[in-house]
Design goal:
five-stranded antiparallel sheet; FAD/NAD(P)-binding domain; alpha/beta; globular; mercury (II) reductase (NADP+) activity; Enolase-like, domain 1; seven-stranded mixed sheet; 14 helices; 471 residues; single chain; 3 domains
């Protein structure tokens, strides 16, 4: 049995683990990185990257057949589903060197390609190696949660971990789960020529602002996606066509089944109890991301039990590095964290939704709105379906919701504003090139100030007074 002593031992080479490994090693820390599966973790291999690559193929197919009133005749796209999957894997292969073992060894990180598990409060074993570290970081991410629905063992079940390896186009894809993953995959497969049915036990896109979610769902239904809400999947069975999902609202038969009902944090194999690390569905951490019961252990990303996004894991890396390397107080916060669902139209959020803001601040909240159909660039491109809402308290944005073209890009300005405690006046004072979709953000800020300027009797009296006395 080999033994290693190190400053930092990181378990998991996904977004959070890799960010910490790169930063800590380049700033002088002695780092050991453990990964028993694929470098890059879920995001690169099964999540963000492959899903957006498949969405890009689907978007191109849809654009060819739906050219709008732009003077270009639509054509029926010749969709090669297997070739679309080739594109997915080409994208993964192109990005993979950035997350590769060789690159991180070049930074001075010792990479061990084995799963790690705790054997004491200060030691982790990975294969034939025991690592004793001053600090440990659990960055194991999460995987698809497959609920114990009767009959699932008798049928082929796809999740985000194997759907991208499927090369034969499904005739009829049934998606169980109407959250972001389910809806993104539903639309992508519909645009690539599949019939698609989504079955959701509650409300589709139920964690988003209902008004914004409905903009997206209307578009998806318009493309021919069947969305069955408040229909809990009670049983699954084989059928002549492939698979049948039995629900309280009837039976739905398809050729393929995709489960997209949520995520499960990967902590089962860590033997956390041997390290005295408290946990439930994730590691129990404080605002500093340290274990509440073993101060040598940190958890980041999905393992920390909060928002499950790749960019959150990257953000956590900065919080942890500040604490581990420099001994400085460092705490996470979530009010400035944006997220996006990459349907078409996209849906993005940062900070509080309208309902959350009104619950927290009551009458002090002002909600300003601006529709896409009044943006000149959106009109020119035929992308006029959409809306932005900004929740404002005492002149500062506390949340923004956007449903529409490029929502995931537009939300960045509001994330910056909230993170830096900027006022609406900072957005209003920003000069943007014309015509751009980003002017929607500025026009939303203008909608906040317009009543104060154009409907104010005091302003009108001041202007009248000044005009009378100006030479």
């Amino acid at each position: 049995m080999d033994r290693i002593k190190t400053d930092i031992c990181i378990i998991g080479a996904g977004s959070g683990g890799l960010s910490i490994a790169a930063g800590a090693s380049q700033m002088g820390g002695d780092v050991v990185l453990l990964e028993g599966h694929k470098m890059g973790g879920d995001c690169l291999n099964y999540g963000c990257v492959p899903s957006k690559a498949l969405i890009a193929s689907a978007k191109q197919a849809y654009a060819m057949g739906h050219t709008g009133n732009l003077g270009v005749a639509p054509v029926t796209p010749d969709v090669n589903y297997a070739a679309a999957k080739d594109h997915v894997h080409n994208v993964i292969d192109t990005i993979a060197p950035v997350d590769s073992q060789e690159r991180f060894e070049g930074f001075g990180v010792k990479v061990i390609r084995e799963f790690g598990r705790f054997i004491s409060k200060t030691e982790v074993q990975a294969g034939d190696t025991v690592i004793e570290a001053r600090r440990f970081v659990i960055a194991t991410g999460s995987g698809p949660f497959v609920p114990p629905i009767p009959g699932l063992d008798d049928v082929d079940v796809y999740t985000n971990e194997n759907i991208f390896d499927l090369r034969e186009r499904p005739d009829h894809l049934i998606v169980v789960g109407g959250g972001p993953i389910g809806m993104e995959m539903a639309q992508a497969h519909r645009r690539l020529g599949c019939k698609v049915t989504v079955i959701e036990g509650a409300k589709a896109m139920g964690k988003d602002d209902p008004e914004m979610a409905e903009i997206v769902l209307d578009k998806l239904r318009g493309e021919g996606i069947e969305i069955i809400e408040e229909a809990q999947a009670e049983k699954v069975s084989k059928s002549s066509g492939g698979v049948t999902v039995h629900t309280s609202k009837g039976d739905f038969e398809g050729t393929h089944l995709l489960m997209a009902v949520g995520r499960k944090v990967n902590i089962d194999k860590l033997d956390l109890d041997k390290a005295g690390v408290a946990h439930d569905r994730a590691v129990k951490v404080g605002p500093d991301l340290r274990s509440v019961t073993n101060k040598k252990v940190y958890a980041v990303g999905d393992a920390a039990g909060g928002l499950q996004f790749t960019h959150v894991a990257g953000y956590h890396a900065g919080v942890v590095i500040r604490s581990m390397l420099f001994g400085l107080p460092s705490k996470q916060k979530t009010d400035h964290i944006p997220w996006a669902t990459y349907t078409d139209p996209e849906l993005a959020q940062v900070g509080l939704t309208e309902a959350q803001a009104k619950k927290k601040f009551g009458a002090a909240v002002e909600v300003v709105r601006f529709p896409y159909h009044e943006n000149d660039r959106a009109i020119a491109e035929g992308k006029t379906t959409g809306l932005i809402k900004v929740m404002v308290v005492k002149g500062k944005p506390v949340g923004a919701s956007i449903a529409g073209h490029l929502a995931g890009e537009l939300i960045g300005m509001w994330a910056m504003a909230i993170a830096n405690k900027m006022k609406m006046s900072a957005i209003a004072a920003t000069v943007l090139p014309y015509p751009t979709v980003s002017e929607i953000n500025k026009r939303a800020a203008g909608a906040y100030f317009s009543p104060r300027l154009f409907e104010s009797d005091m302003v009108k009296r001041v202007v009248g007074f000044v005009q009378r006395w100006l030479p």
